[in-house]
Structure formats: C-alpha cells, structure tokens
Amino acid sequence: MSTESRRGIVEEIGLNQLPVDNWDGSVINGQFIPDTWRDGLDHLPYPQNVRDSFKKFRDSLLKIDLEKRENELYNVPFSKFTAGYAPEIKLWWDTYGPVELGCAG
C-alpha cells in the first residue's frame, strides 16, 4: 500500500498519528520516547523503580550468549525472560511483538 493510500485511510478514520522519527522509538501512554532501549529508558513515563526494572531487563538480555545458546533459546518462551521484572515490560513486549515479530511477548 502506498504512503498516500495509508495517509488517506488515516485521515478518513480520523486517526491522529504521532510523529516517530527514530528507528528505536516507542509511544508509551501517548508520549513518544526516542531511542527507547538506550537513553530513552531514562525518559519512560513510569516511576523510577519501573525504569530501573527496564534497565535491569535490558542488561540481563544483553548478557545472553546468543551464539552459544542459539538452539536452546528457540525453545524458551519469551515470558521466561520477562518474569520477575515490572509488568510494564511484558506490556511493552506484548505491544511490540505482534507488530514486529508476529507474536505476543
């Protein structure tokens, strides 16, 4: 579908699109957060303990040796990785997953 076609549909249904000019941006609670998983974590519209949980989650994922555990990780549900962290993290992935990965977090 062309950009013009999408724009026409968006205008027709009255959808107010937020500008997203960042490859790693997120819209959370109506607020655009650029560079979500880097500097954006400090600007998430959540209490500090939730932002800290996002950082711990990110850091724990970055420690995984993907090459060494590749075959094993194919059989692990992603919910195992989000367990024990703030529920907002699972919510973020449940929103991101269907759009980008074709599955829920």
Count of β-strands: 2
Strand portion, in percent? 5-15%
Note the overall shape: globular
Please give the alpha-carbon distance between the first and last residues.
Answer: 28 Å
Largest sheet: 2 strands, antiparallel
> Which residues sit in consecutive blocks of at least 5 with pLDDT less than 50?
none
Average the pLDDT over all residues and give the rounded result: 86
User: What is the helix tally?
Assistant: 5
Secondary-structure element order, N to C = HEEHHHH
Domain unit count: 1
Structural class: mainly alpha
Helix content: 40-55%
Strand order, sheet with most strands = 1-2
> What oligomeric arrangement do these chains adopt?
single chain
Radius of gyration: 16 Å
